[in-house]
Amino acid sequence: MSGRVTTTVAELRELLASDRPPVVLDVRWALGDPHGRDHYTAAHVPGAVYVDLDRELAGPPSPEGGRHPLPDLADLQAAARSWGVRDGRPVVVYDDLGNTAAARAWWLLRWARVAEVTLLDGALGAWRAAGLPLESGPGAPEPGDVVLGPGALPVTDTDGAAQLAVTGLLLDARAGERYRGEQEPVDPRAGHIPGAVSAPTGENLAADGTFLPAEVLRKRFEDRGAGDATAIGVYCGSGVTAAHQIAALAIAGFDAALFPGSWSAWSADPARPAATGPLPS
Q1: Which of 78, 110, 212, 230 has the highest CB neighbour count under 10 A?
Q2: Is residue 2 pLDDT above 70, yes or no?
Q3: 236, 242, 243, 248: which one is catalytic?
Q4: Coil, helix or strand at residue 170
């Protein structure tokens, strides 16, 4: 994957004051919290545009596609234009959760051939910690003209994920207790895809919510087999935090495919086996 993955708070501040300011997207979303727009309206980076993950960064849920399938390209293009995304204009994305939700927008726009998309390292917390101003209100972006095209980043399906677990490396980005099958708050069954290796997304981040250094991330993924893998895939519950894992892998120097249906699609198919416990199989 080419191009930078992150932008620092200091860099974003300079970009916003430049003659080529980026489009800033606020993806305020968390599992079980339906009030993302309210959080955005109360306080956001000046000029940022709210992005609705459930409605704009995903298609309609289904057992086959999972809880957050990829959106139709035409719908994504219409949404991106409503956010003000223009050809040749950089995009910076953030949330208030270590970018574990914002990474979905980062991945989708990269997948759709938007070249300059980065995550605000440390997310909104880093902006606040720097003492920088916030604004409130609904926002009023000028419409953009971006033209999207699919396929710039690799994607895999249910069969492909099963194959990667055998012949490559399939990483499970969910929390360890969900991987082990000790709890499952939202999906039909507990457990993990047989052969998948646990690599919780939260372990990509330092205590302040920024990504760990590239060399630390590289060792983390090499310890899980990335250095020897012929191909890497990532899944999570519904293809959201898996995008964050792909960002971390990119910082570490590895390319990886996203399984958008993730565990929500796999576990909905009774013909697909589920493994439990701390080991892949």
Answers
A1: 110
A2: no
A3: 236
A4: strand
